[in-house]
Design goal:
256 residues, alpha/beta, Rossmann fold, 8 helices, 23% strand, binds S-adenosylmethionine
Amino acid sequence: MFARNDSTTPDMGKVYDDFAEAFRQSDQLPTWKYVGKPAMEKLLGPWLRPGVTFLDLGSASARVEAGLLIPHGVRPEDITGVEISPEQVEMARTRIPQATFVVGNIADPLLLLDNPASFDVVFSHMVFEHLSDEQLAQTCANAYRLLKDGGVFAFVVTHPIKMTDVNGDLVTTYGEFETTAPWGGVLHNWRRSVEQTVETLKQAGFKVEVTEDVPFPKTAPAGLSNDDLTAFNAAHEKYSRYSAIRLAVRAIRPEQ
Ligand SMILES: C[S@@+](CC[C@H](N)C(=O)[O-])C[C@H]1O[C@@H](n2cnc3c(N)ncnc32)[C@H](O)[C@@H]1O
C-alpha cells in the first residue's frame, strides 16, 4: 500500500527494525520523560481527551500513545499511527490492539488517501529530523489534507542548535548529516532552521501558532527514585550546555 523508501530515504525502516528491541527502552530516556513528553503534553493539552481523533506520523512502538494519549483518556479506537518500520508497527499493535497502526512512509503523497479531512489532530515526536526538505514539505501537505478544518498539527523535533554528528560534534551547516541514535545505529538526519520549518508549514497552508525552544530542565522533578535521579543528573550534565534541545511547534489548518 505504501512506498517504504524513496531515493532520499536511506533504509529508515530497516534501521528502526534492527533497533526495534532497543528502542523499546526509549520510554525510559530522560529526554522523553523530562523534555519530549511534557512538550507534547503542553502542545496537545486541550485536545487530550475522549472523542478527539489523532494521527501519529512516525508512531514507532506507540511510546507517545502509551505514555501520553491513553493516560489522558484518548480512546484507542480514535488513534491511527503510520510508521515505516514493520517491526515497530507490530510492537505498537501488541501494545495498543484497539488502535490502528499501519506500515507506511509519512512522506508518501498517497498516504491514507481514503481518509481526507478525517483527523482532529495530526502529531509527530522526533521524526521530522529524519526527513529531507522535500519529504518534510510533502509530509506537511499530507497533514493538511488529512486534518479537518480547524485541525491541529503539532510536533516536537531535535532542536537545530543541538544536532550532533556521528563523532559527537555539533552540526552547524544546514542539510543532511549522519548521526548516532541513543539506542545505537547510524541515522541520516537533516538540519534546518526554525524559520525554514515555519516557512514549510506556511507553504502547506498552515497558520503557525507556537514555536517553542525547549531546554532540558534545570532541576529534577520531586519524588524521583535514586535510579531515576541518577539518570536525570547524567542527562542534565549532557544537555544543560544547550539553551534548547527540542523544538515544539503547533500549527492550525485554518477554517475554510
Ligand atoms: C526517534 S523515533 C520516534 C518514534 C516515536 N514518534 C516516539 O517518539 O516514540 C523515529 C521514528 O520515525 C520513523 N520514521 C522515520 N522516517 C519515517 C517515514 N518517512 N515514514 C514513517 N516513519 C518514519 C522511524 O522508523 C522511527 O520509528
